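Each letter names a residue; the fold follows as C-alpha cells. Both lines appear below:
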Amino acid sequence: MFPKKYLSIIVDGMDQKKTDCPVMGRYVKEEAPLAQRIIGVKVHGLGNYVYVADESVPGGSNLILEVLNRTLLDLDAKGLLPTDPESCFLPASR
C-alpha cells in the first residue's frame, strides 16, 4: 500500500547438494562435480533475482549481505527504492 515508504525482501538459499554440476558428477569417480550455491531474492511487487556462487566463494552471512547489497544497488539504479524510509528492519530467522 505504501511503496514509497516500505520495501519487502526475502532472501533464501537452495540446498547445495541439489546444485552440483554436472548432476551425475556425484556418481563418477574421475572428477568431483562443481559445487555451487544458488541464492534467490524476492522483492515483493518489484521482481526476483538469482545469484550463483561457486565453491571458491565462502557462504554464510557475508554472502547473504553481498546478495542484499547487490539487489539494493540494482533497485537504486532503477529508481525503485522507497523515497522516504525512516527505518530499516532486518528480521533474523532461526
User: Anything to note?
Assistant: The longest strand covers residues 36-43.
